[in-house]
Design a protein that fits this description.
The chain is built from three helices and ten strands, in the order E-E-E-E-E-H-E-E-E-E-E-H-H. With 180 residues, the chain is of the alpha+beta class. The protein has a six-stranded mixed sheet with strand order 1-6-10-9-8-7, with helices on one face. The chain is globular. It starts with a strand and ends with a helix.
Amino acid sequence: MAKSEVTTADCPYYDAPVDHLQRGCRRCGRRIAWEWTVPCSTCGRDADYTETRCRHCDARLSLWEGIVSRVRRERHHVDLRIAKDAVVRPPGAGFVAHTGDPRGQRADYRRPLPDGAGVHVKAFADRYEVHWDRVDPTEDFLGHVLFDAPHWLLFGGVLGVRLARWPVGLALTLAGHIKR
């Protein structure tokens, strides 16, 4: 199972990686002022999603919506590391508990997007890792396995062959005992 690429930000004061939206750098101890600028979902103009309202159209902004918009600008399966204390828990933003490949996370959350893709949030003790999948498994499980998790096809095929061989071997053994 290939591990997703993870992106972090850099501390503006010290040459150290920090999680996106992390309140301060652990190395230098300084507080970091963040802007999360992506196009407003209402007016289309650049808006800072760390604010509660768009300064152009006064639309309400959700930081999770800004994160989803930013994640969609990356390739699929490229994780953005988000500081856990900077955002509300994913269920509060429309994500549902689901499953994912085990990578040490405590929980997984998913949310389908209108185009059939999906956003996957992996919750760790101190951070979230967020990426998008080409096909959301809550909408189309087989499509997700084919396009986003083909390693499960290989695993399922190997397991299927092993399980199929067991009854055949058992039947041949029983047939040999009955013949005697």
